[in-house]
Task: structure prediction
Amino acid sequence: MAKINILDSTVFNRIAAGEVVDRPYSVVKEFVENSLDAGAKNITVEIERGGKDRICVTDDGDGIERSEMRSAFLPHATSKIAKAEDLDHIHTLGFRGEALASIASVARVTLRSKAKGAEEAYEMRCEGGKLGECVPCALGGGTEIEAEALFFNTPVRAKFLKTDRGEEGEISNFVSRFVLGNPNVAFRYIVDGKLVLQSFGGGLEEAVAAVYGAGVLSQCYHIDAVKHGIHLHGYLGRPSFTKANRTYQSVFVNGRYIVNNTVNSAIANAYASYLMKRQYPFYVLFIDVPPEIVDVNVHPNKADVRFENNQVVYGCIYSVVSAVLDGNAAALDFVVGAKDTAHGEEAAEPSKLHKPNTEPVPFPDVGASERERRGEPYTVSEKKQDKGTESTSTRSLQSIIPDKEINKTDDAASYDDLFHFAKPSQMRGGAPFVFHDSASKQTAESVKNEVAGRAEDIFAENKRFLEEREKKVKQQKWILDNAVFRGVLFNTYLLYEEGDNVYIIDQHAAHERLIFDRLKAEMDARKVMRQPMLVPFILTANAEESAFLSEHLGEISAIGFDIEEFGGASFKISTVPLDLQNIDLNAFFADLFSEVGSLRSIRLSDLLRDKIAMTACKHAVKGGMLLTDSEKEKLFAMLHGDLGLKCPHGRPVCVRLTKTEIEKMFKRIV
Result:
């Protein structure tokens, strides 16, 4: 029987670091949260090589007493809480007491601090969990904490870090959220010795302008609403102000940046009838609730929270956002300054919006108490008294948020008919089951070799089958030397008869494919010719988008764009590919930015292919257009009998019906 070991602190701290410190941004997050909890009003964040070499956070907070500096590095040591009951009333960002011990176990950490009222500052170093001596140092006040050589003793973790720019983008994203979430605190963010972001603690308006630019404010509604005891305030983007990804969305619950399904679903559903597919709203929203009704102790990274009643939170957020977007009378109470701009019967500013044809789906009033139905303020004590009569207080989120629609493909073909793969039920761990008689004398090694051999045979056979099938599809051509034109259906489908077969050709799909093939051939064979722009195009991105672009500058340049960094998170584009000189750069980069945050890697060749496909679609003859006889003959001749083609969007160019199939339809044969 294995012996039960009591792990040493250096071991369990490194295990805990796997949850608390997964990337350099986690270190920045924990350091800055400690500074904010210490009451700092000025915070400086410095990083080098994406935080891999060095992370330093300096603040002017309360500082740490000399007698407590050693305790700060111990696991489960915190000044935020003292007893279990404190977990129900958390008012600080940190409280678990794991961060510093975990970080110090995988990095070289130096802590310098001078407590308020103290005469001297002190320094303590910790390398890989081993504490040094507490010695005097030079520091004006507050705290300076520095982490160097992150993951120096865990090379496996270090190997899976992103590139320097990738890690820098993650950190920049979190620093931006700290600026937005703490608008009364001044921040300085320095990357490799260069000042990248600075705020002056002048309020939310100034913070939003510092992160996104002053022009964003004119595209947003400034809201301030109280409903059922929940305080909502911040900025909501107008429906016309959309983004290509969700990186422009920030939600803060009691000052803590979170990503929560209940909140995100409420806002997304309120915007749903205003936005097109793959468009996302902009918002910086603060939600202040009594700490008793929210649980922040969900995960070590504290990225999500749980509400006592998801239904109330969802309903409040949905109703406020919907009222502002719809421009109804309630918006006068929610939009800051709306009542001041309303004169007589004139509507408030939100009503100037164009209303959609379909009204947003109202929040379902499932299991709400009488007080909630009447719209009276929600209090914690009354809610707890209602718990005995409300059977739905613990209803799951699924019961109050509409299910997402599942996109289904039109392809009804059976995979068993198309692919000769082994059944999943025949597989175990990537290899087929192998059954042996109990009396078999095969050794475990021979069984293992047999399983591996059969798996290799199956995958090799599958590969050959797919290659042969693809080869047959490519070689498939219907020779129509004797085809006779029989007419047109709906000014869209051309009918040809040949022997016992009828061919129905979609004129738009056929023409679109022909144009696409020609443009693609020109694109593949082209020499990169660049067209200088009279006025350079300036592209503004946020931190994550900027890091994404920086990683792909070489690929973008290779296809014909001259693009370079233009200060901050901006990029200057001075030339475009000659054969795409009429390209909409805003739309092109919006498509590119839609890949930010996704797990799949972007291929610019695929994006260009989509642009070519759109060009082909716009120039192809449309369904319903009446073609002349010469145009029909020319289109048919251009196909060269290759009617097995598909248009760039995957629709078939031609469908064949045999005489037998038609006679079966009319029951002439069975």
Observations:
- The longest helix spans residues 444-475.
- The radius of gyration is 32 Å.
- The longest strand covers residues 530-540.
